[in-house]
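Feature request, filed as a ticket because there's no other form

It would be nice if the structure record came with a short human-readable summary line next to the tokens. Right now we just get the raw output. Example of a typical job, pasted below so the devs can see what we mean:
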Amino acid sequence: MTPTRLDKVATKVIEVFVACVVLILLFLLSTILIQGVPHLSWHFLTSPSQSFAAGGGIVDQLFNSLYLLVLTLLISLPLAIGSAVYLNEYASDNWLTGLLRTAIEVLSSLPSVVVGLFGYLLFVIHFHFGFSILSGAIALTFFNLPLLTRSIEGALAAISDTQREAGLALGLSAWRTIRGVILPAALPGIVTGVILSAGRVFGEAAALIYTAGQSAPVVNYTNWNPLSSDSFLNPMRPAETLAVHIWKVNTEGVTPDAVSISAGASAVLIIVILLFNFLARLIGRHLYRKMTGNSNK
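Raw output as currently delivered:
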């Protein structure tokens, strides 16, 4: 077989593999959306869930998921930026840096249920945080930190060394060069990584079962005092998220319309995650064009 013919065969095989992956993804998404979208309504999105009666919604679970996502990013993003800046801009290529990278890889490969049990033993039991949004956010920080660190480090590594040399040539310190030149130039990649990690956090369930809890107490959406026990902003209250709600309805649900609730909530979860991914691409492209002045990409 000639090299040209071999190249064509290899290309066709790769195209078949890609098509299989796309078809599997489309099958999963279409199945969930076809079964779930007909059950979506404004009432479903804005009404609280019901334990025994039919007609419940997911407003509390949806808000809990978004609140926990924001709190997780507030904790993990500064840590990830600091770690990525150190590893890419300051750390030497030695055994310590290799150990840090290995630790990040190991942390990223931990099963989410193990992270949840660790958060349960440390934060819920030892530190007496109880089942709360704060416990869940800290547990998800361990889950989210490696992904964020690697994506931000990749964004920083993509910046040309000439920009660093230009900043130093102008008499700027290394930190001022990083702060004023490197980080702004890497912003499109950083934002894309943050949004993609947000989609991963939003759909997490196993780690939150043991930390944020499996109950959604009635909260007052007009009470903005985070220290009040019934305030929707109270980080110390239990918070059943949307992903946990889907798991609970499928395993323990006794409502007459449990199947409809599960299908509708699954469709909402998939739609939000898809929005995160599309938003990451749109914002990344917009920021890239803005930073480079290139309107062709």
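Something like this underneath would help us a lot:
The chain is about 70% helix and 0% strand.
The mean pLDDT is 87.
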